[in-house]
Amino acid sequence: MVGILEALLLGIIQGITEWLPVSSSGHLALAQNFLKIEQPVVLDLWLHVATLLVVFLIFHKELLNVIKGFFTFNPKNRDFMLAVYLIIGSLITGVIGVIFNDFFVNAFENLRIIGIGFLITAGFLFFSKHGKNNKSLNLVDAVVVGLVQGLSILPGVSRSGSTISSGLIFNARREEIAVFSFLLAVPAILGGFVFQFNQSGFTIAIVPLVIGFLASFVVGYASLKWLLKVIYHGKFHYFGWYVLILGIITLIVSI
User: Fold this and answer.
1) pLDDT at 195
2) I want to staple 181 with a disulfide (CB 3.0 to 4.6 A). Which of 22, 105, 159, 163 is the partner?
């Protein structure tokens, strides 16, 4: 049974790592492996809901514009096309998640796979600095980002790190790919919530659940606001050094 301190710790880890390009799933998997904290599925679900609310809070204008733009059914409307790209990216991610679900679930207990995941993230981040930051998002970007987001279900592969980096590598503008990546997180997190909901059961006391939820929300808000500044200043790739070192350490420990 997860207590208050464990829930607080997991909430902080989720809040920091969900948006920073360092892999929340990888860090939570390490916490469970080394701290021996058995995280109930219901707590994991609600920690993700907390960080999802952060996206709604920060990007509510962009999200409303996309929804309104979609119902114009006008390909010349930029918000309509962004909605289409989000649907395409989400469908690709969903198919990958369903097909490889068993592999992804088992990977959480394999430190070697987690370590490799961190190294993959580092590679994405390092290559992202070579992007020219001069192109609007297009269909190819949506497909690539959707594929990469599917890969990021693997623990150690950062969702934000891989999706934003892939857009930057394809020369997308920093502001556009950042917004696209975080809006793309909405259906991904909701899909994961629905997919796992029947497995959850209410196996945690309400107080630890609330503590973890609030910690994830507050810390997630602060980390996302800070990350956006890092992206807009072209320093996103700096996170690669942290993930590279963490990946090497994880692989050494797994031997």
Assistant:
1) 67
2) 163
